[in-house]
Amino acid sequence: MCICAIPPTPVEGVTVYGRRDSPDFQHVRRFLEDRGVLFQHADVDRDRASLERMKALSGQVHTVVIEIGKKVIVGFDPGALERALP
User: Fold this and answer.
1) Taken in order 82, 67, 29, 54, is the CA torsion positive or negative?
2) Residue 78, class by beta-carbon neighbours within 10 Å (0-12 exposed, 13-18 middle, 19+ buried)?
3) Is residue 50 part of a domain?
4) Residue 11 has what pLDDT?
5) Is there a domain that residue 3 lies in?
6) Is the dihedral of CA 70, 15, 65, 53 positive or negative?
7) Tens digits of per-residue pLDDT, 2-54?
8) Are the C-beta atoms of 17 and 42 separated by less than 8 Å?
9) Residue 66 belongs to a domain with what CATH number?
10) I need a surface site. Which of 4, 12, 44, 62 has the fewest CB within 10 A?
11) Cβ pair 27, 63 in contact under 8 A
12) Does residue 4 lie in a domain region?
């Protein structure tokens, strides 16, 4: 009998706002991908509406902002991400 690992269930409503080349974005991307979390990337360099949403959520324009459901995390904070994910 084979007991195989079951991939994690995707988390609904995860959006990462930031610039694709930002080190913080790359850290968040790897963190979420390592946990099997599907997310939408809102590239604030290419999409003005995403930049405005990021500013409205956090007041930030220079660091990554993560929206998980109704929770908002500013910057790459592994502890906060762990607590926000089911």
Assistant:
1) negative
2) exposed
3) yes
4) 58
5) no
6) negative
7) 444 444 545 568 999 999 999 999 999 999 999 999 999 999 999 999 999 99
8) yes
9) 3.40.30.10
10) 4
11) no
12) no
